[in-house]
Amino acid sequence: QVQLVESGGGLVQAGGSLRLSCAASGRTFSRADMGWFRQAPGKERQAVAAISWSGGTYYADAVKGRFTISRDNTKNTLQMYSLKPEDTAVYYCNVRVSGTDYWGQGTQVTVSS
């Protein structure tokens, strides 16, 4: 059974940094795409960043130049710099393998102004 465990959320002042990690277990992830989504109160869940099994990356326009995603076969990391209050949300780790999406439980990121 696939399990995704997130860590690294918290409270930070605007301009600060946080690093989110997602540890994956339960199967082989060498061909999995990994990423992060976020959901702010009253808003839909939206993609933040993703990295394919071959290393290709995607970033939402709102985070380009500030966030960096990296991975190995059992973990992916989202390094967040220059955080803004509008980055406040619950961040969810996502892994897609063989057409199936798996989700972490979510970790809260709060950026104070």
Properties at a glance:
mainly beta, four-stranded antiparallel β-sheet, seven-stranded mixed β-sheet, 113 residues
Tally of alpha and pi helices: 0
> In sequence order, what are the helices and strands, one letter per element?
EEEEEEEEEEE
Arithmetic mean of pLDDT: 96
Globally, the shape reads globular
Low-confidence stretches: none
Strand content: over 45%
Reported for the largest beta sheet, the result is: 7 strands, mixed
Instruction: Measure the end-to-end span.
Output: 40 Å
Rg over CA atoms, rounded to whole Å, is 13 Å
* Strand runs, count: 11
Helix content: under 10%
SSE class: mainly beta
Write the layout of secondary structure elements.
Elements: E1 3-7, E2 10-13, E3 18-25, E4 33-39, E5 46-51, E6 57-59, E7 67-71, E8 75-80, E9 89-97, E10 100-103, E11 107-112
Parallel strand pairs: 2-11
Antiparallel strand pairs: 1-3, 3-8, 4-5, 4-9, 5-6, 7-8, 9-10, 9-11
Summarize the structure.
The chain is mainly β and 113 residues long.
Q: What do these coordinates show?
A:
The strands form two sheets. Strands 2, 4, 5, 6, 9, 10 and 11 form a seven-stranded mixed beta sheet that branches. The protein has a four-stranded antiparallel beta sheet with strand order 1-3-8-7, with no helix packed on it. It is mostly beta strands and 113 residues long. It contains no helices and eleven strands. β5 and β6 (57-59) form a beta hairpin.
